[in-house]
Write a structure and sequence with these properties.
Helix content is about 15%, strand content about 30%. It is built from 3 helices and 13 strands; from the N terminus they run αββαβββαββββββββ. A 7-stranded antiparallel sheet has the order 1-2-11-8-13-6-3, covered by helices on one side. The chain has a 4-stranded antiparallel sheet with strand order 7-12-9-10, with no helix packed on it. Strands 4-5 form a two-stranded antiparallel sheet. The longest helix is centred in the first third of the chain and has 14 residues. The protein starts with a helix and ends with a strand. Bound molecules: N-[(3-hydroxypyridin-2-yl)carbonyl]glycine and fe (iii) ion. The site of N-[(3-hydroxypyridin-2-yl)carbonyl]glycine has 11 residues, from β8, β11, β12 and β13.
Length: about 220
């Protein structure tokens, strides 16, 4: 009861918010599928466990990651890349489940990008204090396709800037079930996640999980 009231407040505001030309926030878009999404994430992580990778600069990331799809995003001392194999196991990444694929396609279509067919889904796991520094997503061959980003668990502050690292950033709160779609003129915008505030989420505990779907190759 109290949780329902809280959830109602969290989703207050317009269901759809334009963050910038090409970037749309669809509030609560993934909510009705929360239980299935979490079960599928657990199944993927059982096959390809979350791990904190090393950046080319030699820093261990605070965010733990895994992937599904025909290629997964990896970083090590040699650089960032998409790789068909999970370097931890030497095996292919788990396939993108139909539930994920349908959600990504529907969100993209809702935002005006028809026929989105992702081939990679990066799964980020944040614990309190974890953050993602300002970056551009530019390791994908096809930047004509949008990225679809699904937030689950603890709320986060999303930093959204411009095409230069030094451009001023706007801050948006992303909560459980929110989906951001961005492409077109926003596709190469700098963005990041502020250090995660501690809290307890009813389904995910002290964690935030983010899925980002891309067309990588
Ligand atoms: C996150 N998201 O939300 C990090 N990248 O945890 C991203 O880095 C991101 O949300 C590209 C497009 C959408 C995103
Ligand atoms: Fe990103």
């Amino acid at each position: 009861m109290a949780a329902d009231l809280f959830d109602g407040l969290e989703s207050a505001g317009p269901a759809r918010q334009q963050l910038a030309p090409g970037a749309v926030l669809l509030r609560g878009f993934a909510r009705s599928q929360q239980a299935e999404l979490i079960a599928v994430i657990e199944a993927i992580a059982a096959q390809a466990p979350f791990r904190r990778m090393m950046t080319p600069g030699g820093h261990q990331m605070s965010v733990a990651m895994t992937s599904c799809g025909s290629c997964g995003w990896v970083t090590d001392r040699t650089g960032y890349r998409y790789d068909a194999l999970d370097p931890e196991s030497g095996q292919p990444w788990p396939a993108i489940p139909p539930l994920f694929r349908d959600l990504a396609e529907q969100a993209a279509s809702e935002a005006g990008f028809a026929d989105f067919a992702p081939d990679a889904c990066l799964i980020n796991r944040y614990e309190p204090g974890a953050k993602m520094s300002l970056h551009q997503d530019r390791d994908e061959r096809d930047i004509g396709a949008p990225i679809v980003s699904v937030s689950l668990g603890l709320p986060a502050t999303f930093l959204f800037g411009g095409l230069k690292r030094t451009d001023k950033t706007q801050r948006y709160r992303l909560v459980h079930g929110d989906v951001v779609v961005w492409g077109g003129p926003a596709r190469l915008a700098f963005h990041g996640i502020a250090p995660l505030a501690d809290g307890e989420h009813a389904l995910l505990g002290r964690r935030r999980i983010n899925l980002t779907f891309r067309r990588a190759r």
